[in-house]
Amino acid sequence: MKWVEEGIFSISSYLTVNAFLLDKACDFPNIENGRIALYYYSFKNYYFPMKKGKKLSYTCLAGYSAETGSQNGRVNCTNEGWTPVPKCYKKCVQPTLDNGVFSDTKLSYDIWESLKYSCHSGYQTPEGKRDASIQCLQDGWSVQPQCMEETQQKKCSVRFEGGLLFPNVLVSKFTGLCFRQNQHS
């Protein structure tokens, strides 16, 4: 550091600056789709910045939940700021499912919550199973649940080394260019 080379920077000022950084305070949190207690808003200048080691509770609005899946969250003021970062996630609404049923009748699900489903007789998931589950993530469901006829397979065109093209070869799994078609057609 230039200050040290010129003799301007002293140990006492280093300790003062370091102590200030260690006692870093946390500013008023802006929680999208969430609120802290009303008195914090009324006396904002008194409570904030909040000192390291203090805890703060918040509540998510209807239709949202904290990362824990609960309507309420709690954060700690640390050297890095609020930990965990106070955030409210949109709940997942039960998706539509043709040819299958969900194991639960709830209309909405909290983040990280799973929802199991089963396909009706004669139907399966795209992976070829009768049962599967999806998970509510930060941006919505992990996948759209699907139940398709067991007889559905993929028809694809396959190109061989010699350059010959064989259309309409039935395969159970193919990563190339394919389209879905009922086997009976």
Summarize the structure.
By secondary structure, the chain is mostly beta strands. It has four helices and 17 strands. A hairpin with a 2-residue loop joins strand 4 and strand 5.
Compile the SSE list and pairings:
Blueprint (H helix, E strand, L loop, with lengths): L1 H5 L4 H12 L11 E3 L1 H5 L1 H4 L7 E6 L3 E2 L6 E7 L2 E3 L5 E2 L1 E2 L6 E3 L5 E2 L4 E6 L3 E2 L6 E7 L2 E2 L6 E2 L2 E8 L5 E7 L6 E5 L3
Antiparallel strand pairs: 1-2, 2-4, 3-6, 4-5, 7-9, 8-10, 10-12, 11-14, 12-13, 15-16, 15-17
Tell me how many strands there are. Answer: 17
**Low-confidence runs (pLDDT<50, min 5 residues)?**
1-5, 7-20, 153-185
Helix content bin: 10-25%
Computed Rg: 28 Å
Q: What percentage of amino acids are in beta strands? A: 35-45%
Instruction: Report on the biggest sheet.
Output: 4 strands, antiparallel
Query: How would you state the average pLDDT, rounded?
Result: 79
Shape: elongated
Write the element-wise H/E pattern from the N-terminal end onward. HHEHHEEEEEEEEEEEEEEEE
Count of DSSP-assigned helices? 4
Taking strands numbered 1, 2, ... along the chain, how are they ordered across the largest sheet? 1-2-4-5
Quaternary arrangement of the chains shown? single chain
Helix and strand content put the structural class at: mainly beta
How widely separated are the two ends?
78 Å
